[in-house]
Design a protein that fits this description.
42% of the residues lie in helices and 16% in strands.
Length: 338
């Protein structure tokens, strides 16, 4: 039982955008466990949500009318839906991450939804340098090498600016979410198992967060926001609270899936140059798919990025209950059965 699932209060009507996704689905499950009425807003229909008794509304987050309909009658919205990734058209990222968030904010205000918890990303402050133990006072980056962090930064600022008397908002920045049912990070690592190359010296420490801890943090944020309105407009980093060498984490995931560790390596500078060249080729020849390396990925893989989560601990009561070691054990068990 999670630290939030055990808390029983009056049932609320709660919307989770992206409820069919990895994080959204984990949040939905915890809400259902504690007796809330949950509505999911996603583009698809998900049988696992239906089996939980979750109301499903299908639509595009970029569609203002669809979002308005989904938010009507809600007491709380978790805005988790986003377009992630390192490659693609800027317009697609903008439509989902910026316009979509604007639609959620407008719908909350129109239908008098009192609370909004927004899922952001630490990448909004990533400037290509080592970030070690930094807190929420670090400013947004003034240069982005990928559309995802740029659009998430715009969205996050919109949510901060939307905080008002009749709409309390709170923003969470989970970093590298992983665990069973992961549809993004773990599959990418496994798919590249035989061609992965370590970028840099392999000593760079990074934060990650196990899926159950990320879901816990979101519900804690909503509960604390209801109790303490002064938290409205705040931003919080959330993680395992124990940074690990990035390539140790990659190798642990590979091991859990039955693969050998990464052996080959290249320098950060070489990876950056390769990324720049591949980006240019993909744009020039309008190639499908995504480059195996980009400038953003090269910098992410070679630099340290871990964060001070003391604010989340103090204000939200957040404690990562599942350790990284235990999370890897659970992931390995899940991978063996899938």
């Amino acid at each position: 039982m999670s630290q939030v699932g055990a808390k029983k209060s009056a049932a609320h009507k709660i919307l989770v955008t992206g409820g069919g996704g990895f994080l959204g689905g984990a949040i939905v499950k915890l809400l259902v466990e504690r007796g809330d009425h949950v509505r999911s807003f996603s583009r698809g229909f998900y049988q696992e949500l239906a089996s939980l008794g979750v109301e499903q509304v299908r639509g595009d987050i970029g569609d203002k009318d669809a979002v308005e309909g989904a938010c009507k009658g809600m007491d709380l919205v978790f805005h988790v839906a986003a377009k992630a990734g390192v490659w693609g058209d800027y317009s697609e990222y903008f439509k989902t991450n910026v316009t979509g968030t604007e639609n959620v904010i407008a719908a909350c205000i129109k239908h008098k939804v009192p609370r909004l918890v927004h899922t952001s990303s630490p990448s909004v402050i990533f400037n290509g340098t080592d970030m070690e133990g930094v807190d929420e006072s670090v400013p947004y980056s003034n240069k982005f090498y990928a559309h995802y962090p740029k659009t998430k930064a715009i969205a996050e600022q919109n949510v901060i600016n939307a905080a008002r008397d009749d709409l309390m908002t709170i923003i969470l920045r989970p970093h590298l979410i992983w665990g069973p049912n992961d549809s993004h990070l773990v599959p990418r690592i496994i798919a590249g198992a035989k061609r992965l190359v370590m970028v840099g010296d392999g000593k760079n420490l990074v934060d990650t967060i196990y899926i159950d801890n990320a879901a816990d943090a979101h519900i804690l944020a909503a509960d604390r926001l209801q109790e303490n309105h002064k938290l409205s407009g705040n931003v919080y980093f959330i993680s395992q609270g124990e940074p690990v060498p990035l390539w140790d984490m990659v190798n642990n995931i590979l091991k859990a899936a039955g693969f050998a560790p990464v052996k080959r390596s290249i320098s950060r500078k070489t990876a950056w140059v390769i990324g720049a060249m591949l980006e240019a080729c993909y744009k020039l020849f309008n190639l499908s798919g995504e480059p195996q390396m980009t400038r953003f990925v090269a910098e992410e893989l070679a630099t340290a990025h871990w964060f001070d989560i003391s604010a989340a601990k103090k204000d939200l009561g957040y404690v990562p209950r599942v350790s990284t070691k235990e999370g890897i054990r659970r992931l390995e068990k899940w991978l063996k059965n899938h």
